[in-house]
Amino acid sequence: xKKLFIILYxxxxxxxxxxxxxxxxxxTYYTIQGNKLLxxxxxxxxxxxxxxxxxxxxxDAGGLTKMRYNANNDEVEYxxxxxxxxxxxxxxxxxxxxxxxxxxxxLLTYNYDRATITGYLYELINKPALKIYKREHIDFSKxxxxxxxxxxxxxxxxxxxxxxxxxxxxxxxxxxxPSNKKKLIEMFPDKKEA
Length: 194
Description:
alpha+beta; 10-stranded antiparallel sheet; 3 helices
C-alpha cells in the first residue's frame, strides 16, 4: 500500500511538472515542420539586401527575371508567382548579370579567413591577366535588452560590413587581396620592380 501511494504521488508530481509547458518546445516543433509561428524579423532595423529586386539574367538560361542578392545568407533570390525562392548554388546558375545596375555576380570558390568558401562575389575587373572580385556581406545582430535602467536596449539589426576584395591568381586560385603594400608585393614577387 505504501509503494502504491509513493508511485501515485510521483506520477501526480510528474504530470504537474510536465503540464507547465514552455512555449519554446512548440516553436521548435513548428520550425521542424517548416511552419512559422511568428515572423522572426518583424522589428529589425535594416535589410539583408543590397538592392531591391532587379531584372537579371542567368548565363545560358535565357530571359530576364527579377532577382536580388541576400548578402546575409549569401544567396540569390528570385520572384515567382508563389513567392520568393533561393537560387541553387550550382555552377549552372553561378553567373548572374543584373542589367539595371550593370552588376555581375559570380558563384566562385575562394579562400577567406583560413577557410575555403563557395559563395557569390561581385566581379569588378575581368581581363585575361587580372580578375578582381568584391565580397559584400551584411551581418545580423540580435536584439539586446538593456542591462540596467541607465543603458538602452538595441533592436535587432542588419549592418553592412566593410567590403573584402579578392584577386584571382594565374593558377585560378582566388585569394583575399591584401590591404597593405608589403603583403601585396609578397604576393607578386616577380612584379616587385614595377
